[in-house]
Amino acid sequence: MSKKSRTKSSKTPSGSPTAKKKALKPRASTPTKSAKTQRTPATKSTGTLAKAGSHKAASKQLNSSKSVAPPAKAKSGLAEGQKAPAFRLPRDGGEVVTLADYAGRKLVLFFYPRADTPGCTREAIDFTRLASAFAAADTAVLGVSADPLKAQEKFRDKHKLGIPLISDETHQMLEAYGAWGEKSMYGKSFLGILRTTILVGADGKLARIWRNVRVDGHADEVLEATRSL
């Protein structure tokens, strides 16, 4: 082979500029195309998720507002000086108790969340301890919760309680006296009994209302209020 032909053949390998250019073209176009296809669905899915999320949040807000609004109204509607709402409910022992039974006398109604729980037990024992002092002040005392009568009677017997316990399973009295409403625990909201005490005067009107009661010393505070009424 001549020197001229050898030189010519050495210039035609695949590493020439022309070959490089041709080889690079398909590589450059492939990622561009795949990136384009990846971006489009991502944008759509984000928009869809955001839209679905907003619908979910809106429906959740509507549902919660429906269930919470009525108790809030009932609670704020009761004020001192108003006439005490009438009630007729069963008590431990199977008798029926009404507001009219206490006409002309002062009456203490303490609403507690649940029978035989620590706070409610202490509160009921404190009112029992002061039962004779309340009687001397011409004041009757009634405990009220949504527990069934059997639970109330078991509660009474276990702790030797000396005050009548009313069962309001339908929550009618609880709502009328603003003792039923929204509560929260561990970041979750729910409806339940709000620890509340009401002092009804001998004239049948609400003399004092205690909301969000703290049990310690509460019965003694209520006794003092009845004595000064």
Automatic annotation (TrEMBL):
Record-linked SUPFAM superfamilies: Thioredoxin-like (SSF52833)
Residue span, Thioredoxin domain: 78-229
EC number, as in UniProt: 1.11.1.24
Disulfide bond listed as a keyword: yes
Taxonomic superkingdom: Bacteria
Region (Disordered): 1-88
Listed PROSITE patterns: THIOREDOXIN_2
Biased composition (Polar residues): 29-48
Record keywords: Antioxidant, Disulfide bond, Oxidoreductase, Peroxidase, Redox-active center
Catalytic activity: a hydroperoxide + [thioredoxin]-dithiol = an alcohol + [thioredoxin]-disulfide + H2O
Any GO molecular function: thioredoxin-dependent peroxiredoxin activity
Described function: Thiol-specific peroxidase that catalyzes the reduction of hydrogen peroxide and organic hydroperoxides to water and alcohols, respectively. Plays a role in cell protection against oxidative stress by detoxifying peroxides and as sensor of hydrogen peroxide-mediated signaling events.
Family of the protein in this entry: Belongs to the peroxiredoxin family. BCP/PrxQ subfamily.
PANTHER family associated with the record: AHPC_TSA FAMILY PROTEIN (PTHR42801:SF4), THIOREDOXIN-DEPENDENT PEROXIDE REDUCTASE (PTHR42801)
Protein name (Swiss-Prot/TrEMBL): thioredoxin-dependent peroxiredoxin
Organism annotation: Bradyrhizobium ottawaense
